[in-house]
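Onboarding guide, step 5: your first structure request.
Type a short instruction followed by the sequence, for example:

Predict the 3D structure of this protein.
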Amino acid sequence: MTLSMRKLPNLAREAWLNDPKLQAVLSVLNAAGQTRVAGGAVRNALMGIAINDIDLATSILPHDVMQLCKQAGFAVHPTGIDHGTVTIVNRGKSFEVTTLRRDIETDGRHAVVSFTRDFAEDAARRDFTMNALYCNSKGEVLDFTNGYADILNHRVRFVGKPSERIQEDYLRILRFFRFHAAYGKGAADALGLAACKRHKAGLKGISAERIRQELFKLLVAKCATDTLKLMQTSGVLKVLLQVVENWRVVKRLPPDAVLRIYVVAKKPAELKEVLRLSNEQAARIDALIKAPKLSPKLSGLERRQLLFKLGLQTWQDACAMAHAQSTAALKDARWAALKRLADTWPIPVLPISGKDLLATGIAAGPGMGKLLEQAQDFWLAQDFKPSREELLAHIESVME
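The system replies with structure tokens like these:
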């Protein structure tokens, strides 16, 4: 059902829509065809949520979009031209412009598309009704799928038949849960949930990178914990990884995907391979596995020593993890003071290095490394106070 224009809000007063950079692109493209803002920007505007990216849908063919925008002086990048997408840059602001499409063939991962001039056809191939909204340069909203009603009800609902949308791209199962975690309220849409359960095995054919991207977005959403529970009870989560149901800890952690996946995973050491984590993400997981359990009971010297040894990122991660696993209130002053150390105490640098030892005639090699370790241990035990000269004197004394 299409809502009439009179029943829909008008976005004409939105600052992002009145941005001269966007309006200039719309003006150029609308001179040759119909072009509207599509998807997330319209959804977020109607929900009162901050807008980051602005995507455009147009009736103009991709190569014509490129030619028109080049003639207008915009930078043009054919980022996804095989699927009709061109990135236009106007004075540093990027807009993805995609020609209206309909799916011809899908295999659960990729789609073969043909171009159309019909916005209703384009809306029919989108995943959720709240993502199938458009607005023109004057802020008039088009809604072919009753998406605005679903926005008002905070209901994530597939466009058309859920099973058909899912079988076009099985990643939409994760997107269903992710959008529910971010925008939904109350129970998940029953038809959508049932279809996700029925087709969950299709996720096995999706690349680990795509899985990770969606899962990590879900993990930081406002209703992540309840949605993860729903994924577990529906059998979807176990398709992705073996899970430990530490829901209380997940809820108490800050919205950090790495911390939350560490808690959820039964075998966190295997996450790098299972989800194709980046080197940085994998390093954080590995450091958490090895880190000691922190506590406000640590003395001031013990805190400083551990912060030095762990480094800033691991200290912050270990603090957040230990606090979440504890029985202390989230606003507990003792835990707040422990975490605050990283902000108030700059991590010092050991005043000596191998160059200093070479200058004293000590040969490079394992023996030098051992002497530096002994010097560092002495420095830490003395609360980081010994100077370069005192450390060299200490090394001289242990060599006698």
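Each response can be followed by summary notes, for example: The chain has a mean pLDDT of 93.
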